[in-house]
Amino acid sequence: MHPMGFRNTLCASLLVVASATAVTAQRPKAKTSATSIPTNILLRIIPAEDQRRWDDNLKSLLTDKDPKVRKRAALAAGRIGDERAVPALIELLKGDADNDVRQMTAFSIGEIESPAGADALIAVLNDTKEPGEARARAVEALGKIAAALPEADKDRRRVYGAAILGTLRFEAGRRSRPDTPTILLGLTAVLRAKPEGAGPVVVPFLGYADPRIIADALNTMARLRLKDNNEEVRQLLRHSDPIVRANAARVIGAAEDKGAFNALLDRALHDEDLRVRVSAIRALGSLKDVRAVEPLLARGARLISDFRAEKERKIASPTTQNELLEVAGALGRATPPLKAFAQQPSEKASVMFFINARRLVNNSAPEVEIGFARMAPEDYMTMHFHNPTFNHNETELARARRVSSLAEGLREIAALKPEKDPSRVNEVRSMAETSLASWLCVFPESRTRECSESLWLRQPEVLRAYAAFKPKDLSEVLRQQFRRSDVIIRATAAELLGELPPDKANERALIAALPLALRDKDLNDAALAILDALGKQKSAAANEAIKTALDSSDHLIRRKAVALLKANGAGDFSNRIGYVQTRNTEADYRRAIGRIGKKVTAMVVTSKGSFVIEFLTEEAPLTVDNFVMLARRGYFNGQTVPRVVPNFVIQTGDPRGDQNGGPGYSIRCEINEVPYDRAAVGMALSGKDTGGSQWFVTHSPQPHLDGGYTVFGRVVSGMDVVDRIARGDTIRRVIVNER
């Protein structure tokens, strides 16, 4: 599950991360209150959230005499996400005497993402005498509503964007007494709303003394690819705070500021904080400047030497691996593709770097495969024309990871553009396409030598790579996948068919595949993907097929069908969404509520050492309960860490090892006001309410995740271990302690 496609996105691996310098500014913190709310009240609120049920019972709690109850009920209304709750929330925002209730109400209006709540939020922002927390949550909420608007709704996007920028201008204008939470949440609102003219409003915050404000301003600039005030950004590469330096490097890379090359190279090679180094290395790759090749090769050679030494000492997944993979990725982007086999000494040196790197990571790192294929496609293909050979001592999962990485490398060959010698390029492309075709499991449920377990596990990646070549038989190959039992394979086939132009044969196959997908027990990936693909067919027959999903027992499937039918002008079936048929019973709710106010921790024992999570039992009781119950049955034991992104997150909890796995059910999001600072523990998603077992830990503040992913814990000890974890490391066991 996935930031931004947390579950399915393949990302770079993790790097050793030094401890962050403490930042001064803080985003608004969630205030505890549920500990004093009676259990009988929570038993009215939490099941309603879990069932996504807005009704008079919950509405009545918005007028309870206890402000803690009103606040908790407002949060529930936001989590449920029913637009019918907006009028009651607006009334609460305007009239409640308790500012803590009002700020939560603003937050919840943003969670519903309905334009119906925007005017009330703008009114709060326009009243500069409003308390800071209410204004902070109002600007955050308006950013969420703006982000959810259709691209065609330009008028409202412009109005909401202007209100957000106006709020930041006001705060910048009172430099002597700024409201820090409003600035920080306002900067995040800008990156969500993407208003025109954001650059001149964001840049002044680079001059603030507070490193957190500077870092968040840089984060917004990087994500919006703003090119304002390059010189000041370059100067921030020397800032005392490592997060500021890292984010400055990100801005330079996003803006492709070649004038910063020397300063960026210095940080990439010499910064003491590895978060800064990896950000600078990535940025060098984005600049595509050949001057970076020689120093990066030298750095890579040193890392390879260190990697070998650590492997000889039998250190599992050495941390140098992570920086090495970043160097490989940057070299692939910075080096112009060779027009033929490597001839010059510098070209041969680059090829040898990739050969050595491949050997060290056993062909299982997509960064190395992609970089090699980009830089020297002909050399790459000479080493990779036949199916991969496997070590008999490897596990099927290890083999599968290698297949996945090799498929990513071959996929890169599809992007080659014919220049002076199109026949040569076509020959290389043909070799890559042939290799991928040999990895396709073309017969349903095949377990032959041609479709080993490792190939079977990675058919989604193989299919995506094969599709990149746009072969003539692509539609036929994809349609065959609907005969598989594997849900993820069928989902991948549907996604890829949806990317093709509307086609009657594909439409018929999608319609025929939908009933089986709707019967998949506890897994909705295929059904949701097929519905999306049918929605793109824009035909009466496809819409009729989508309507059959309105009878599904799965709340997410019904919601998807309603949205697609509405978008296609086939009717408004919002009244068919209904409630969630939850797995939880009253005993489950009572168990989760019983932990509130208690200290509940989990020691996560990994192949790199142990770290301890303290759970947020009040802010996310059902998410915590889900994790605890999975841990107690040994669910996480022996799983590998499939996703590590330096200076971002580590992610685990996937039994498949490809970021598509889960426990066979989904849980509801419990979005809260806890910020994604360093060491936050969150649930990975592939869309709202799609969490299950995958979770992540942040290496540094990630404000763009706030209010989008459930925070359910914090790492309270052992972040140095988290910082050392690399992709492929193992979760040996998870030990829960309740007091």
Task: Tell me about this structure.
The protein is an alpha+beta fold and 739 residues long. 53% of the residues lie in helices and 6% in strands. The chain contains 33 helices and nine strands. Helix 16 runs antiparallel to helix 17 (320-334) and helix 24 packs parallel to helix 26 (487-498).
SSE arrangement:
Layout: H1 39-51, H2 56-61, H3 67-80, H4 86-95, H5 99-112, H6 118-126, H7 132-148, H8 154-173, H9 180-193, H10 199-202, H11 211-224, H12 230-235, H13 242-255, H14 261-270, H15 274-287, H16 293-312, H17 320-334, H18 345-361, H19 366-375, H20 377-382, H21 396-413, H22 422-437, H23 453-457, H24 459-467, H25 474-480, H26 487-498, H27 504-519, H28 525-535, H29 540-547, H30 555-567, H31 586-594, E1 600-606, E2 609-615, H32 621-632, E3 639-640, E4 643-645, E5 649-652, E6 680-683, E7 695-698, E8 711-717, H33 719-724, E9 730-738
Antiparallel strand pairs: 1-2, 1-9, 2-8, 3-9, 4-5, 5-7, 6-7, 6-8
